[in-house]
Design goal:
three-stranded antiparallel beta sheet, alpha+beta, single chain, Ribosomal Protein L9, domain 2, 3 helices, Ribosomal Protein L9, domain 1, 2 domains
Length: about 150
Amino acid sequence: MRIVLREDVENLGRRGEVVKVADGYARNYLLPKGRALPATDGNLKVIAREKRRYVVQQAKEKEEAEAMARRLASASCTIVRKVGENDVLFGSVTAADIAEHLEKEKLIVDKRRIQLDQPIKSLGIYTVPVRLHPDVAAEVKVWVVKE
């Protein structure tokens, strides 16, 4: 079945593309979830209109994300924690802790955008990546110090 994607679908295609998929995949998943439309002339026109609006919106969001990335690059996050022997933290520093500290500095970042592979469990200086937009990433310096 030929369909037009209404949004990016991983391992299938990007928004606005016409792709061929199995009938069951289209009928049971893509069409009911609103991720795609059948590839008819009318739907192609609708998707083209949506795509133009989407491009303008994405450009605006990317510009805002780049501005936020510049602000994050100049910010540093100092987190104070209790430590035990050998300077090992009691607990850990998570993405939620970093987001909370950044919010105190008037930098609002969703904790899901902070890409911390594993929680930080020792003292030190860490560079933590933050994915603000699919095309824009920033890095935040996180200082973990003892109380």
